[in-house]
Amino acid sequence: MSTTALKTPVQHATIWDSLSDKSKARRLVATSEDFDKLSERVVNQWNRVDQIIPRNKLLALIAVVVVAHIIGLAGFINALHQPSIVKPKKNEVIVEFIKPEVIPPPVIEPPKPPPPPPPKVQRADPPPQAAKPAALRTAPATQTITANDIVVQENTTAAKTSGPVVAEPTPEPAPPPPVIKEEPLVEAKGGVGHLNNPSPEYPDFAADQGLEGTVVLRVKVLPNGKPGEVKVKKSSGHGILDDAAVAAAKRWAFTPAKRGNTPVEGWAIFPVEFKLQ
């Protein structure tokens, strides 16, 4: 970096004038010697400029100017590509407040008072009239009908009797129907061991698995003692045991229900236990 002192404005003007002298520029075309002299003079002038403005500052200034031109050119090109900003059209909304029409309530007129009664006019009593003479009356007629003139027809259809007439007696009320007393009902009976009923077969799978339980059956017993319908009222918790109990009950014999001495249809409820020995 050169430490030469800065030149005065007069010296700067002298340097630039010498560089831009047109008369000297014309002589460059004349001879090669003039071109050499002019080149030597330009180099000298550039050295003087270098002494006035340091080279690094000059290069920095030139770089700043170039960058500024590049940025300006890029901004201009970008502005050309960007669409112009169109201001949105404002849609005016007119809001008009309409005051609701208030319909006054109908005026109810009070009832009119009844009209006053008409004044009573007292009429004057008519003058008394003279008494009329009494009308003439004819003499009352005399009764000329005798007792023999009334004839009563004889009842020839009635039975002839010489005794006194007696009124017919009123019939006595019918006795109430007899009350039939219902005979007591004896429920049906059945189960394992009843009437030599065998125990149900223990399923092999249930025995291998160690399944046990008690099934409560509800059997519809016909009058002849045979089962009509078998239902599981309470399960043992294992379907295989419930099915075995139902299958056995369908082959058993039962004591039918009786009303008095007559066998009737009824239901028998009993447990069936499955227990491994």
What does this structure look like?
This protein has helices spanning 9-19, 22-26, 32-52, 55-81, 204-209, 239-249, and strands at residues 185-186, 213-221, 227-234, 257-259, 262-264, 266-274. With 277 residues, the protein is of the alpha+beta class. Among the domains are: 9-78, no CATH class; 185-274, TonB (TolA/TonB C-terminal domain, 2-Layer Sandwich), CATH 3.30.2420. Strands 1-4-5 form a 3-stranded antiparallel sheet, with no helix packed on it. It starts with 8 loop residues before the first helix and ends with a strand.
Which helices and strands occur, and which strands form pairs?
Layout (H helix, E strand, L loop, with lengths): L8 H11 L2 H5 L5 H21 L2 H27 L103 E2 L17 H6 L3 E9 L5 E8 L4 H11 L7 E3 L2 E3 L1 E9 L3
Antiparallel strand pairs: 1-4, 2-3, 2-6, 4-5
Helix pairs in contact: 1-3
Q: Examine the coordinates and then state which fold CATH places here, giving the name of the CATH topology of the domain at 185-274.
A: TolA/TonB C-terminal domain
pLDDT below 50 for ≥5 consecutive residues: which ranges?
A: 1-7, 21-30
The chain-level mean pLDDT equals 76
**Total of DSSP H or I helical runs spanning 4+ residues:** 6
Question: What's the gyration radius in Å?
Answer: 75 Å
Q: Strand tally, please?
A: 6
Assembly state (oligomeric): single chain
What is the CATH C-level name of the domain at 185-274? Alpha Beta
